Amino acid sequence: MFGSTGFGGSSFMGSNVVTAPTNHNPMKDFEVVSPPDESISCLEFSPASIPQNFLIAGSWDNHDGSKVFMAGCDKMAKCWDLNSNQSIQVAAHDAPIKTCHWIKSHNYSCLMTGSWDKTLKFWDLRQQSPILTINLPERCYCADVEYPVAVVSTASRHLLVYQLENTPSEAKRIESPLKYQHRCVSIFKDKKGMPTGFALGSIEGRVAIQYITPSNPKDNFTFKCHRSNGTNQQYQDIYAVNDIKFHPVHGTLATAGSDGRFSFWDKDSRTKLKTSEQMEQSITACCFNRDGQIFAYAVSYDWSKGHEFNNPQKKNYIFLHSCYEEMKPRQKS
Amino acid sequence: MGRKKKKPSKPWCWYCNRDFDDEKILLQHQKAKHFKCHICHKKLYTGPGLSIHCMQVHKETLDRVPNSLPNRGNIEIEIYGMEGIPESDIRDHEAQKQAGRITTAAGADSSDEEGGSSAKRVKTAQPAGQESTGPSIPSLGSMPITPMLASPFMGMGPMNPYLGHLSIPMMGSVPQMPLPGGAASSPQTPSKPLFASSSSPSSSNSASKPAFAAYSSGGAAATIVGESTVPKKSGVIATQAGSSKIMHPEEDLSLEELRARLPRYQRNSVPTSMPQMSVASPQNTTVGPVSTVSSGQMGLPMSHLPAGMMIPMPMAHMALPPHMQMGMGPMGLLRAPHMHPGMPGGFAPYGAPLGFPMMPPRFR
């Protein structure tokens, strides 16, 4: 296995890392060998408790990294215990489960699942029934959890903020700052490490930075991204923002677009730090490893052009990009 | 708004129909978006000013105002803030705003959030439809109300994504407009049946929420029960607007929902209710004959499997069905040194330790 730090340290694969520059790897990043055959819906690096970096297309149990939660369109969520290599069902909904997040609070731990059946359910893994069910106004499309805050967004552009202390409860509903379908959300923290706001991405190539309780309404803003031909031209192709993630150290953010590019942004100075070259297919998921050295992104078809453009022959990729320097915030001049 | 007080309406931009809090901001917006030279970025003060600048300085002709709606691109009209807007457009805008308020009231049984956002959506949809409501509304004066209301809706509602949204505000707006011929009182009745009929083409259940009928989940609400989780009738997104195109299918479903329509993802079901499987399959939105055949195939072997067997199909398939978040990495960490790091085939051996038999390939 690879070492624990540095660029090469985050693959569970053997040493056949492809580094030769070919068309499919315009950023000349490390390529993960043998990625999944199908479109990759989510990536997560292992938490800090595991000395090595392991990358999964799934969701980790936040703290001891011994369990992986998987949720899917079979309307179930499963917990895969890595030590025993056993997988058990831990959640069920009436419709495909779109999100699952592990919540660890001082007096409880549970799995939060958001589903297209318009409910948010909280599961104690030892019990068959959810310990709490919250109704959503619409199908859950995306969610993020940073204790003690959870943000959930649904169809019809609803935005709900929950506080997770004692018992999860709805804290507020925010009117959407975006005009189009929400696609991804990611919570960011302030300098003290408290979750204070979130970034919300839509299908219309736009991201909104929203503070949960802004000191000044002008703190909230939106910016356009993942559009072709620049913003001054008459004709523009507008792509969906498939994923947003914040850098764990710098607090800057990365967006993954349906246009096959990823970009780094500094929300405090409201600037763009970098845009990547274009990949062969859209970037469907991305994530940072725990120390912010590595940015992983998955290149696969996101269905944005319908069924016709799904080409099972086209290979999917997961790339690892060294990002620590590039993601440093821009100094406000 | 009970009293007849005519409070000044909020400033809005004639070029792109956006609303602003005050005229100063509107002016800044116009200078930055509509009166800015795309070559040298110099901000001019008016449309004609910009056109002259481009001609003299860059020797380029400008035929339309940048970032403007298709019917508002005329560079020769001199607009400055709210000054210079032609009367007919002012009336149109007022009508649209009234329509926006009506639909908010109509959708009042829903939460504030939805009401607010539906009003917003109505407004966003307006620019696209204005080209048709603009010329059509003035011509309504002499026509009787009912047939006039019926035809634009029927013609456009189901077809054109923009006007599908607009059909509702249109119907709302006409009764409000001070049409000649004493039409003030009569429109009230025709508008009701029209609202009811508005829900039929675009959704199956939105009688209670006509304002959302044409939008996103109006149709979805009824169909998300039991086995069918992906709405069959959904609203549309205005993916084409002026000079930009959103690279997204027009249906207002998430990409994952669209992907979940694939037959291989339809074969999921709540394990406790097996009969649902055979019911669910014919509801595949894919080609009819194919789905019935596949359901026949699936139905039989499925029925023999204990509920738990349903699980591995998406799992055993290494690839990730939508939002199927599966672990790959940690396999290296597990006590399974025989595990080939390659993922695609690799998952199969895990089918065994997990207690699930491998499914035949056709169930991929």
Automatic annotation (TrEMBL), chain A:
InterPro entries: WD40/YVTN_repeat-like_dom_sf, WD40_repeat_CS, WD40_repeat_dom_sf, WD40_rpt. The keyword Repeat applies. Keywords: Repeat, WD repeat. PROSITE patterns: WD_REPEATS_1, WD_REPEATS_2. WD repeats lie at residues 90-133, 241-275. PANTHER family: MRNA EXPORT FACTOR AND BUB3. This is mRNA export factor. It comes from Daphnia magna.
TrEMBL record, chain B:
Residues 191-211 have a biased composition (Low complexity). The keyword Zinc applies. Residues 127-136 have a biased composition (Polar residues). One of its GO terms (molecular function) is zinc ion binding. It comes from the Eukaryota. Residues 93-143, 179-211, 269-295 are annotated as: Disordered. It is found in: Nucleus. InterPro entries: Znf_BED (IPR003656), Znf_C2H2_type (IPR013087). Coiled coil: none annotated. Signal peptide: none annotated. Keywords: Metal-binding, Nucleus, Zinc, Zinc-finger. The keyword Cytoplasm does not apply. Residues 6-65 form the BED-type domain. GO terms for cellular component: nucleus. PANTHER family: BUB3-INTERACTING AND GLEBS MOTIF-CONTAINING PROTEIN ZNF207, ZINC FINGER PROTEIN 207. This is Zinc finger protein 207. It comes from Daphnia magna.
